[in-house]
Amino acid sequence: MKRYVDTSIKQSEITPREIFEDRRQLIKNAAAGAFGLPLATWFSREAFAETASYGGAKLKTTTDSIYSTKEALSSYKDVTSYNNFYEFGTDKAEPALRSGTLQIRPWTLSVEGLVKKPMSFDIDDLLKLAPIEERIYRLRCVEGWSMVIPWDGYPLSRLLAQVEPLGSAKFVEFVSLADRKQMPGLSDPVLNWPYREGLRLDEAMNPLTLLTLGLYGEQLPKQSGAPIRIVVPWKYGFKSAKSIVKIRLVDQQPVTSWNQAAAREYGFYSNVNPSVDHPRWSQANERRIGDGRGIFSPKIKTEIFNGYGSQVASMYTGMDLKKYF
Ligand code: MTE
Question: Which residues' Cβ are closer than 6 Å to ligand 1?
């Protein structure tokens, strides 16, 4: 990425699993109307009012499934205050501080291109489409850090099934919102806006690829890519496009923003791979953010495919992953 901020990561509040579970139960109860007005202030995050619709009955916990890691979660505070979202600035702290201007309702996501039934969805359509599942995924950034985040969403394949991809569709392109009025970072030509990412169709259809609407049991905070983003856990974080407005099925490998900006550094595939160095640094190790140890957190060995090899390696059989990095 443009700058490596070797931060003095704050010794932030850790949200242990039990507290998170308690909070989620409270949100569910509140959504079910079990509490009266006094608690409204307790849930003062803007997110609450809008998350009640899925913080309740529709949340299906899949944390025991093959899809979730059992590793300690990164704290809510770190997950939501140490972000890459260049539309709001290139510094990790900026998205949380500057994304207040993002209007997340109404929001339309159009799914188009090589499909039988092009369609537009608003957030309520997306919430109704499939039960929200919670999945605990690692997110590994090229800059050498990672987090463990409880995401709420469902497989992107369920959305793609709605539009019926044509046989000629080979890739999926994701396009983020680009509105100068809402996104102050767009005045910096650090990337060719709008932010674009892409996956091969089979990658997009893999059950790990999540259409993500929330985290930690509540609607996505703006800095995390509200109201809707993609999460692709076996790839470097930049493949997980935030605040998307368009998904296009295409027959050619799409141009992606980071590849356009620095092709030697950011390939199309971007699978987490400890044996492929970034031209400016090694990718062999990572530091887990939000594990409570701040800058004293020891480096851990990075796993191929970010540890999701058993679910994804077969998609790359016979491919030279050094060439297609
Ligand atoms: N999506 C958009 N639209 N703009 C961005 O700058 N940054 C990417 C990705 N998605 C980015 C984006 C990068 S580099 C990373 S590491 C992840 O978002 C960070 O996600 P997080 O802030 O939720 O950890």
Answer: 1, 83-87, 139, 141, 176, 195, 224, 237-238, 240-243
User: Distance of alpha carbon 237 from its chain centroid, rounded?
Assistant: 7
Could you tell me the distance, in angstroms and rounded to a whole number, from the CA of residue 195 to the centre of ligand 1? 10
Q: Which of 15-19, 39-43, 173-177 has the highest mean pLDDT?
A: 173-177
Domain boundaries, the chain: 52-316
* Percentage of the residues of the chain whose pLDDT score is greater than 70: 80
- For residue 125, the surrounding DSSP H or E stretch is helix 123-129
Q: Which of 5, 75, 76, 85 to mutate to test the pocket of ligand 1 (most atoms within 8 A of CB)?
A: 85
Angle between helix 17-31 and 47-55 (nearest 10): 90
Q: How far is 98 from 102, CA to CA, in rounded Å?
A: 9
CATH number belonging to the domain at 52-316, selected among 3.90.420.10, 3.30.70.260, 3.40.630.190, 2.160.10.10: 3.90.420.10
